[in-house]
Design brief:
Helices cover 40% and strands 10% of the residues. With 147 residues, the protein is of the alpha/beta class. It has a 4-stranded parallel beta sheet, sandwiched between helices. It starts with a strand and ends with a helix.
């Protein structure tokens, strides 16, 4: 579970664990043991856009290297068997729904493996929406609904 910058940290840590597990001679079954990646108030789409928009500074080799270090975008099977729920509010100036982390044309893509973007309709006060998630039922309903 990660809010705001914590969602970036959670995403990076999970990718590191998945990568390490896939290369380890005695894997720890990170995919099977991770029941949910829940992000809320996440700027992940904004950071992905910013880095992809730097076309002059970004080479295909650098993009390929970045993808190789992110199993969650590299392969849907088995890595996206981990459910990913993202809670956002259109009134949150920091976050957004996560659209740049899915590729409908990729092998293994389906509706259960894509990021499940859920709008928090109670996070509605501009500038405060970014911290309203903590007191709204959407976050806790999603947490309690998962095994």
């Amino acid at each position: 579970v990660g809010h705001s910058l914590g969602s970036i940290v959670s995403y990076d840590v999970l990718n590191s664990l998945l990568l390490e597990d896939s290369l380890h001679p005695k894997p720890c079954n990170v995919v099977g043991r991770t029941k949910l990646l829940l992000t809320f108030g996440s700027p992940l789409d904004r950071t992905a856009f910013i880095f992809s928009a730097q076309q002059k500074a970004t080479t295909e080799t650098r993009e390929a290297l970045a993808t190789s270090l992110q199993p969650m975008i590299r392969e849907y099977v088995p890595f996206r068997d981990i459910p990913w729920v993202n809670i956002y509010s259109p009134r949150d100036i920091v976050s957004n729904s996560l659209e740049l982390y899915d590729d409908p044309d990729a092998a293994g893509y389906n509706d259960t493996r894509k990021v499940q973007n859920i709008e928090d309709k109670d996070a509605k006060i501009p500038l405060l929406a970014h911290v309203e998630y903590w007191k709204n039922p959407t976050l806790f309903d999603e947490l309690y609904a998962r095994p």
